[in-house]
Amino acid sequence: MTQDIPRxxxxxxxxxxxxxxxxxxxxxxxxxxxxxxxxxxxxxVVFIAVTAIFPERxxxxxGRANTNVVQELGWYYIAITAGxxxxxxxxxxxxxxxxxxxxxxxxxxxxxxSWFAMLFxxxxxxxxxxxxxxxxxxxxxxxxxxxxxxxxxxxARTAMDTTFLHWGLHAWAIYVVVGLAVAYSVHRRGHPISxxxxxxxxxxxxxxxxxxxxxxxxxxxxTLFGVATSLGLGVSQISGGLGYLGVVDDxxxxxxxxxIVVITAIALVSVVTGIDKGIKWLSNINMVMAIALVxxxxxxxxxxxxLSEFVSQIGSxxxxxxxxxxxxxxxxxxxxxxxxxxxxxxxxxxxxxxxxVGVFIARISRGRTVREFVxxxxxxxxxxxxxxxxxxxxxxxxxxxxxxxxxxxxxxxxSTTGLFQMLDLLPLAAITSGLAIMLIVIFFVxxxxxxxxxxxxxxxxxxxxxxxxxxxxxxxxxxxxxAVLLLxxxxxxxxxxxxxxxxxxxxxxxxxxxxxxxxxxxAKALIGEERQRQRRQxxxxxEELAKEIDQQPR
Length: 554
Fold this sequence. Notes:
The chain has 21 helices and no strands. By secondary structure, it is mainly α. Helix 4 packs across helix 11. It starts with about 35 loop residues before the first helix and ends with a helix.
């Protein structure tokens, strides 16, 4: 045959009529979805009230939950998170990667630069600033159980390996699972922006009833506690930085609560401006500030060492990827405790953030192919994150290994001031420390802003223009959760951040089952669409062959 085979487009499946008014109020409605909003809001108000009235008792309960539940879940979180990485890679490498998240031929809604800036700021903003120096130093000071006795250089390499594990492909693969499921459901099938519809290929019309409501309520609660954990990290670092710089004399719980109130109020202003004016604008500003900070550290710090370490650690990460991914430490007595404080916490934290980040990146990813989505969300932010840790964490480790130390005290690493201690070793310390505090504040605002927007959509039945008052309500709830859990942790005599971390992991557990269902639902939908395309292509080939045979002379 001399005729070329035409490109067979992926025909989007006809949109399915969403649930009725009882589930999804009309766009612009002043009333959120009652079956999601009121159960979630009621549970949160009760939890906040009880925690505020009985902080010590709640703190003790959370401590027991950490010992008896969280530390026993390490193997489970490790297994499913590794599975999410495999799922993301399989989807991107398959023929299904050509499917457009929208109409065939549709152009992306946002430019690549703005898209990536929003991904970066919404995904891990505060955590990167908080742990950029603190985590490598913590693992250097107290290596993971089972790490071989080694010289400082080997201990530093192990510290960076562990940090890369926690902030690399695994974290973003979790976001890929939810984001892809929602993006396909919303942009390809025309469903409302709601997590329940991502499971429609599995549950069918049952998503309109109890199971759909339960999925959205779990997503709302998990998102709020996940974002609250980040806000707690942020105010702890801001207060620690202000105390370290001598701006305030007392950087205790009172200052943290005041900071939460003030910055939450700022976030409310951003919340009501909408996604384009608020989140996009702040994300772009933060991207510039973050690049400026990391570029300064790379130039003013040990530049050649940072570049060499980055290259070396990429190789080490790839070489040890499978060993690190599945290391549940069964032969170490303190393995479960260490996992509960680090790897299990991170996997649970990312899962609790997944409804928020997944829905948000789905919202801004219309017009991209499945492959573009996976590569963009999985690979690019991971690479930038590695650069961040290589610069900030690498500079801190260089000080400890080659310059006589000074960042690790007798009681270990002060995670809230580690960044400022490192910047103090470089020129222009006062300016860069001020920039770091501004960075944390804006990350706080963007996290609260985008988190509130997503939660409001979920609690409004997928309404793309949810009521402003409920959006403000959720932003206030995020701040209140962070405040009461910080106080509960302190009242129980434990690490104030421990209560936030434990609740994030506990709330992530039920949503992890939803994510497993999303993997199967997304695979089923994409495979079905790919098979339809192949059948159409075979039919076209058969018809063309028949025409050519008929045209041949007898």
